[in-house]
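Students often ask why we bother predicting the structure of a whole assembly rather than each chain alone. The short answer is interfaces. A chain on its own may look different once its partners are present, and contacts between molecules only exist in the joint model. In this exercise we take two input lines together and write out one structure for the complete complex. Read the inputs first and try to guess which parts will touch.
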Amino acid sequence: KEKHKILHRLLQNST
Amino acid sequence: SHLLGAEPEKVFAMPDPALPDDDIKALTTLCDLADRELVLNIGWAKHLPGFSSLSLPDQMRLLQSAWMEVLILRVVFRSLGTQDKLVFAEDYVMDADQAKLAGLLELHTAILQLVRRYRAMGLEREEFVTLKAIALANSDSMHIEDMEAVQRLQDCVHEALQDYEHIHHSEDPRRAGKLIMTLPLLRQTATKAVQHFCSIKQDGRVPMHKLFVELLEANA
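Now the answer. The structure tokens for the assembled complex follow.
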């Protein structure tokens, strides 16, 4: 999961 | 209308004028453009009805499987009005000779096949945005946790396409099916593209941003 951290972060952003 | 409203803004390629005009510059420009489009496409996915209520791991899996299909479908739609050229961005249009120089001739040919198919059908913007949503919902990731929720998303976007065709193309009751039958070629083309950019990544000569690399690695 650490490998996909940017996708994870972008999906969590509320915009 | 919801999907039309969720459509991301356009992106410019802005090739670096300081770089010499060679294959590395072309690939660098495309990878940079793709990375910026990916950020927009992730934002777009969150606007699809039902997508944000999927679990975060399922949202990730759909995007990890379908991201290149979404990128390519956007290039295809932009290229409908241009003969034999791919409109990667308004300021970045590539003909076969330029694609060959960049080592992308096979991919260029495959994407143009999709362009011709949709041009022959007169693909409309409403159909394009709905097909793009179908491609995401139908991405066939092998590790979906809640397949029922993904099925609901598929049903929702499929129904949107059926409704649109029923109202606007009642003269051709098979139009929705014809559109859906283009998706295997989109999948095949996206697979080729991912493989090609994976080998470019391994080559190490083209700088790539982290999100683009992350998604290439998710597919590899």
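Check your guess against this: The mean pLDDT of chain A is 80.
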